[in-house]
Design goal:
It is a single chain. By secondary structure, the chain is of the alpha+beta class. It has 10 helices and 10 strands. The chain has 2 domains: 95 residues, Immunoglobulin-like; 188 residues, no CATH class. α5 crosses α6.
């Protein structure tokens, strides 16, 4: 029994690893694609390839996924002695923060034509997920850098207890709503060319998610419902809940990437609320000029937080 449980655990870990890292390259003969230094892409093949094909730079072209019209020029192609690893050097540095699409002519291996390949080159998938999560939470915090959700932010940041409750509820709702929005966009709106309805559909989906969480909490955990029920309605008024589905649709995020973005947005909102609540509780005891009491001093404080968060601008996590 212990051996069986051990094998089940190992299989589970392998499945999660495959899911997070992503093993598909776009062609069965290409085992791996990866960036190297700032201007190189390395291709690893399942077997040896013909040197005459591999060293001909005209057989390769690449572009950044968001900018397909800008073709990157391959300066040099070097094949390893075992003929299974090919290093492509580009004339200009590559923006490794973005996924690149690399196309090849028909791959030649030992005189056999294995067909052309369209390959996606990007960093380790788990690293991308961490980058998206921390980017939404800190580097591109929706409150302090995009100035979204300010009405709920100022309304729920007077007390720490209220701020924590609102932040937790919002994180739960936005994670669920963004995941559903991604599925609806990828399998309904996009295939049937209904993307012009994105805003309307996503607003309805957020409202439906709030109602669903409300009903589940009411039935499953009445105590938690009484604690969080006050904040559920306010989630609908938070424009971050609409911004996240629109961003994931515009950037063609995968399911895991969409979940990371939503989780990061929720955590970022929670951090902003908690920090602001801590300061506002102290301001209640401070000698603030009468003309600045209340919302005026709160806006000044939020502006100082925004300036501080600008220090994260340009930071690269992975």
């Amino acid at each position: 029994m212990k051996e069986l449980r051990r094998y089940q655990w190992l299989v589970g870990v392998l499945l999660v690893a495959l899911l997070l890292t992503g093993c598909k390259t776009g062609h069965q003969f290409v085992k791996k694609t990866q960036f190297k230094d700032t201007d190189k892409i390395v291709l690893t093949f399942a077997g040896p390839v013909d040197e005459s094909w591999a060293t001909n730079v005209s057989n390769f072209s690449a572009y950044e996924k968001p900018d397909p019209d800008i073709v990157l020029t391959v300066k040099e192609a070097v094949l390893s002695p075992e003929k299974t690893k090919l290093t492509l050097t580009f004339e200009a540095p590559l923006n490794t923060g973005e996924a690149h699409i690399l196309t090849t002519t028909n791959i030649m291996s030992e005189g056999q034509d294995l067909g052309a390949a369209i390959l996606t080159v990007k960093k380790l998938y788990f690293g991308m997920l961490v980058t998206i999560l921390l980017g939404a939470a800190l580097i591109n915090n929706f409150v302090f850098t995009k100035y979204l959700g300010l009405c709920v932010f100022f309304g729920c940041s007077q007390k720490r207890g209220t701020a924590i409750g609102m932040g937790i509820v919002f994180t739960i709702v936005i994670a669920f709503a963004a995941t559903m929005a991604w599925a609806l966009y990828q399998f309904v709106l996009k295939p049937y060319q209904l993307t012009f309805l994105n805003i309307v559909v996503f607003i309805g989906l957020v409202s439906l998610s709030v109602q669903g969480v409300d009903t589940i909490l009411r039935k499953v955990n009445p105590v938690l419902f009484k604690a969080f029920g006050v904040y559920l309605v306010l989630v609908i008024a938070n424009c971050i809940a609409i911004a996240v589905p629109l961003i994931l649709a515009d950037n063609e995020y995968t399911g895991w990437e969409s979940f990371s973005l939503a989780l990061g947005a929720g955590l970022g909102f929670l951090i902003a609320l908690f920090m602001m609540a801590c300061v506002r509780e102290k301001l209640e005891l401070a000698k603030v000029p009468p003309s600045f009491k209340g919302l005026p001093i709160a806006f000044v404080t939020a502006g100082l937080f925004a300036l501080a968060f600008l220090g994260f601008s340009g930071l690269t996590i992975y």
